[in-house]
Amino acid sequence: MRGRSAGIFGAAVVGVTAVGLGVLSALGVLDRAAVERPGAQATVTPVPASPSTVSSSPAAVPVPTASPTPRTTATPTGRTTATTRATPKISVRPPLRYVFPVQGCPASASQAHHDYPAADIFTRVGCRFVAPVDGRVDEVIRVDRWSPKTNVAADRGGLAVSIVGRDGVRYYGSHLSAITAGIRPGLAVRAGQPLGLTGRTGSARSTPAHLHFGISWPTPAGRWWIRRGIVPPQRFLAGLKTGNPSSPAAMVERAKTAYGVDRGCRAYC
Ligand SMILES: [Zn+2]
């Protein structure tokens, strides 16, 4: 997000940020060694999610598929024997669990977004951006290429991570100050697993710190005009705050159908 609220919050946020980082460091919440920063070497220390997580509705619980049924087979001699597979493999996937994407700090999501559907989740610099659901890392942008002179749309997010959840939905967070070490495309992640730290990279350089949060359907890499957000995430985020989350999967599916053929950026390009 850029613009209007910068003047209102800018000075306050800078002050809070400095104090906030100090407090977080003292509490051990913000481990500077646990994240990678551009141009610096760092090591991994994933931080567990806070307990403020919630479960999805029973409708989202997958049903086990395999069942060890004894089979009866006839041998060539005419005798009948019962055989049971020695170690049947039953894959029971845990129920989907959704987690608010900003952890460790107060955070408040905007009710609207300029130009296209998304949410700006206002918070401090250095708060954990976590996977909202189990899934796999989709794209990771580790270098902030944005310049206010050119304002290239593809670069506005600065440092960013997207994941594709087990629910088939892509979740995107940008303007990060750091990416968690080891986070790379294809990596399996669990709900609540840290992906990075909130910040002010990209076009958030002159705005209050926030996580730009977008929900969309998966696409091939680089389609930033979809990745940045297609479906309003406000209801999903509000559900997480009140402990009554609902999956955005159906809404994303409907939006994908309505969107039609993708011929590139349509707004704020
Ligand atoms: Zn935004």
Write the SSE topology.
Layout: H1 6-27, E1 35-36, E2 54-55, E3 71-74, E4 80-83, E5 97-98, E6 102-103, E7 108-109, E8 119-122, E9 128-130, E10 135-141, E11 159-165, E12 170-176, E13 178-180, E14 188-189, E15 194-197, E16 210-216, H2 224-227, H3 234-241, H4 249-259
Antiparallel strand pairs: 1-13, 2-5, 3-4, 6-9, 7-8, 8-16, 9-15, 10-11, 10-14, 11-12, 12-16, 13-15
Bound molecules: zinc ion (ZN).
What would you note in describing this structure?
The chain has helices at 6-27, 224-227, 234-241, 249-259; strands at residues 35-36, 54-55, 71-74, 80-83, 97-98, 102-103, 108-109, 119-122, 128-130, 135-141, 159-165, 170-176, 178-180, 188-189, 194-197, 210-216. The longest helix is centred in the N-terminal third of the chain and has 22 residues, at 6-27. The two termini are 14 Å apart. It is α+β, with helices and mostly antiparallel strands. The chain has four helices and 16 strands. Strand 3 (71-74) and strand 4 (80-83) form a beta hairpin. Residues 1-78 have low confidence and may be disordered. The protein has a single domain, classed as Glucose Permease (Domain IIA) (Distorted Sandwich), CATH 2.70.70.10. It is globular, with a radius of gyration of 22 Å. The strands form four sheets. The chain has a seven-stranded antiparallel beta sheet. A five-stranded antiparallel beta sheet has the order 1-13-15-9-6, with no helix packed on it. The chain has a two-stranded antiparallel ribbon with strand order 2-5. Zinc ion binds at residues 1, 113, 118, 120, 212.
